[in-house]
Amino acid sequence: MMDPNLTTIDFGLYAHWIVLLPMIGFLLELLIGKYTWRKGGMFATLSIFGSMIISYGCLYNIYVQGMPFYEYSWPWFYDGIVAGFTIDPLSLAMLCMVSFVSFFIHIYAIGYMAHDCAKSVYFAETALFTGSMFGLVLANNLLQLFIFWEMVGVCSYLLIGFWWHKPEAAAAGKKAWMSCSVGDCLFLLGIAIMYTIMVKQGITSEIISFNNIFQNLEHLSHETLFGMSALTLICILFMCGVLGKSAGFPLHVWIPDAMEGPTTVSALIHAATMVTAGVYLIARAFPIFLAAPNALMIVAFMGAFTALYASTLGLVVNDLKRIFAYSTISQLGYMIAILGCGAVLGVAAVAYALLHLVAHAFFKALLFLSSGSVLHGTSNTRDIKEMGGLLKGMPWTGYAMLAGALALIAFPFTAGYYSKDRIIEEAYLYAAVHHPGTLGYLPWVFLVLGVILTATYTFRAWYLAMTGDPKSHLAVHPHECDWWMRTTLIVLSFFAIFLGIITGGGTKFWNFLEKTFVTETQTATGAYPGLDIHEIAHFGGNTLLEHGVHHHIPAAVIYLPLFLMIAGLGIATAVYYKNRVDVSKYIKKDNPLYQILWNKYYLDYLFKDIIAEKIIMTVFTFWDVLDRYVIDGVVNLLSWITIQSGQVSRKLQTGVVQNYATAVIFGVSLLMILVMMIKGGM
Amino acid sequence: MGPITLILLVLLIGAILSLLTNTTAQARGVALVSSFSALALSIWMYLAYDANFDTVTHYAFEESGTWMPSIGIGYHVGVDGIGLPMVLLATIVCALCAVFSWTEGKRPNQFFALLLLMDMTLIGVFVSLDFFMFYVFWELTLLPMFFLIGIWGGPRKDYSAIKFLIYTHIASVLMMLGIFALYYFNGTASGTYTFDIPILLEAYRTGALPISQFWLDFIFVTIMFGFMVKMPSVPFHTWLPDAHVEAPTIGSIILAGVLLKMGGYGLFRVLLPMMGVASTWFIYLIALFGLMSIIYSPFAALAQKDLKKLVAFSSIGHMGFISLGVAASALAGMDPARIVAHTGAMFQMFSHGIITCVLFGACGVIEHHTHTRIIDDLGGLTKKMPKLAILMIAAFFASLGLPLCSGFVAEFGILSGSYGTLPIFVMLAAISIPFTAGYHLWAVQRTMFGPYNEYLGDIKEIKWFEFLPLAIWVIIFVILGILPEAWNPILSMMHTTADYFITSGNVLPIGGIHVAAGGAFPW
After folding, report:
1. B252, B204 contact by CB (below 8 A)
2. Which residue on chain B is closest to A74 by alpha carbon?
3. pTM of structure
């Protein structure tokens, strides 16, 4: 029996501890971590466990006990900037996922990082990373979200470059920060504009709190800037931030390089603590996007394009971790695309996106951690061309990876099946209802094509790594991972397979999430009423589907993703398992298609070799010349003229201070006398 | 005798006593006692600030007396919510600098005496309420710095010291012309000649001076030039990198941490009340100087090969934010946003003062241990100096504007608050952020990360007396970046003052300065 008192605990009163506990864990790890159990890891893991308990307590309060959604805040700095904490289905879904996945990644890391000499620093950074993500998720205002957004960025920088002595790792960390920074400066600009137009409405408290903005959307939607709706401009700027953080095209270039960090870090970044932040931003600010004309259309197209684009790149890479990295970019594209379809679907789009986000977190963490186990067991082999037959030596890892792979390709009844196929169906509905023209079908077409590619590249990796004969001596005798790591693989495999079934095919999850925004939120001083989401959609010129009205989707459309998935799986099986087709004849230098894919559509070349090294290097070399010879040249020229022009001035050049001081005193006295004379003359 | 006079005297006596000592230990002892007494006094002033605040004059700890009554020179000192944080900054920085130079062996008595003298003159600038005193202290700051560079400096110290002295001195002389004009015109109009800052500014602000717009502008622009050179604003910045490169570490820390703030302080104390009367396009000019500095500095910094010069350029960019914030908050707009911009600009003064100390301190430690500052010769220093690495990375991130450090609070305030009045400026300033991040991260990558450069030999970890000041500065900027405003000693004080400057009508016209159509730049 449950302790009757437990039912009366209001965990939400302790929501700020969800953020603070990992921060304390960070400090303890940093200062005294290396003198404790196993030289680090204890404080970080325990503090995140504490956050997890509070998160699930909040979920129990709201989901089971039906307590109201609420937020509370304390003044932070300036007028109306607060540190706030929101508890609603949206933040709860994220909190529970982040704390759970991050906790198990920490358990795994106790085994995985056992032999690293800077273990306590590693755990300090991951604790800060997770804590920052909690701060981001709980934020009730844009600035707090941005602050933790940047903290997440800096932790990812430090962790990607954790093995700082490797030049590639140091460069990868910098690349991650720089790509995000391009988006972040625009995001910050968007916040500044939002701040300004909110002040213009005469709002003085909690100026950029989400709920406050939502309540004022009607007035805000009349603001214009540069001939367009101010809200649309703001949303585009936010979207730039999302492209950086959630690895959207074209700012996704940092993701593959980020594989230089420890694999546990990749798992954290891809599943729990970093790339989901962008998706969460759009979800959290969803009413703003809905009220901004055309903003969601851009979101839908960018997301769908990214989904297809990244999955083509996954086909040719040979690095096991990079294959999964590209699949992350692609899956994030699905989430962003469905949020864009919210122009028709309303809050349901947020629910669909979040289920895929949560499911993705489980199976992607699983995929990375099992590939980490492969690396661990084969002396850091990452090239799938050097693996093969690993299933015999490491069955736990092999089957765990299989579970993750099946969920990733949306194999029936796995977690991904319920989340991803729903997204594709709804993308079709979006086109059919909202955009009768051909262009409206583009997101759907992109997403559908992504399915077949996803199945192919995922099982290409699995077959090449796990089946067949060992292709290098390192793969002959792999050793299986220890029980710290195995525990995590088992737990994550369970959720990767059964999450969809547990949530009643997603229905329970969606119903819970759809209450976000439309239900009132309690605050310390009152309540924000629930939003009329249809009215908000009208501000942005969007028309939502009426709730409960059945829209016919042809059976062919419903089953198409399933068939394509099977087709992709079949291709992978035929080529890489049965070896029916010899692909090596296509992998040639003179095959232009292969060249384009292998060089990642030359985006890295464009950014690094052309923009960074040619254009910016030239500009700043020129800048240096300008500084030295033009601006400073004028200064030196002036002094030269002065020196040449008279004896008195020439003495300045000698550096004798007495002369200089004499001149000063002489000059001052002269002026004083002048003034006195003028004064006397008045 | 009030606390301000006491601080000045403590430091002056300390400087004289220090000069009379013979050994490093003696000189250091005198310097520590003297500078920490000044620090204690300024902290006491902070604690007693509210009780001693005069709501009529809007200053605390005011002291006034006559000095040379025949020409209207008085001894008038006092602090407000911008002056007192600057005094705190100067005393914190100089006290910790005395710790930092624990083992200074070259002419230690003179070194520590100059350090204390530097502290005194800087505080003198921040407390003066009489233009004559202000100008004297302003000029006196040059001398200790000149000698610090000229005696303890690097290879090209003579060129740099002279350039620093002459460049900033020329600017000061122009400023003096403006001050004398103000003094003279006020005297002729009112009949009493005085250098008292509040009286002169009040006369200027209320239009009591019977002079043409040309002379009003003349006074404004000469004084502005003095401040802009000191800040320094692009294109008057070229003395700064040269001075930094050759200055000893302590010289750089004080130069960037406190001395540059004199220019910013002048904007708040002297120029702000004048803005309502002088031609409005000067406000845009100040904003433009700020914007130019913000955009210029990352590009120039990217090209630097010397770590210290790179850090010097970062100062120029950060000081640009102050000009931008002040100009934007003076223009007519929405009051809450203007107050935020103004508070942000004030907070940037303190915040940058602390952050840049760690940057230059870290450069100094690296130079001291490896005997080079050329970025390409370094690499992988984390291996040998992990503690320095933590402090330096913290400072570099604070400098590029990482949230939860004080710099972010200031820069967010400036950008958000300024958008309402100067949108295009803010957009252009925001674009500089990735470039700023770029040169910081690139510098960290090349000095701290990667394989250790074995040519550097076996270098030692940072020493305790170097570690302690840097760690304290890091703790200060992190705490100031996290604390809620109500508990944030600096920000809350500045906010109250900014509120007074913007909304009281005693400094700026109520509602801000309206720009007549066509009265400003096209934007």
Report:
1. no
2. B484
3. 0.91
